[in-house]
Fold YkoF-like protein.
Amino acid sequence: MPSSPSDPPPYSASEDPTTLATPPACIADFCLIPLGTATASVAREVAAVQRLLGKSGLSYQMHSAGTTVEGSWDDVMRAIGQCHALLHQNGVVRIQSDIRVGSRTDKTQRFRDKVEAVEKLLEGGE
């Protein structure tokens, strides 16, 4: 909603918002949660996902509660979808996912840059 009557709407009436391009880059943190597996351990599923991401050409980093991946919006979302498809192919019938994704237009930032910025502050005692 425009903030005042003189402000333009977020897109013009003649523009079709379904034709907007996706952001050129994003950083996503995701966790796939396989449901109904034979054991409480999901190490095999995590390993399969990591192998797939290793072949994706995207930058990624596994951590204790999921994986951070960066690239174009379309490539990142495709990779997460392929992770779902792989686990389904491997016999997991139901998967829930938590996905947090960010994009910015003011500068290029990689996920390692964000961590290094905080580490630098910690080193300086701030």
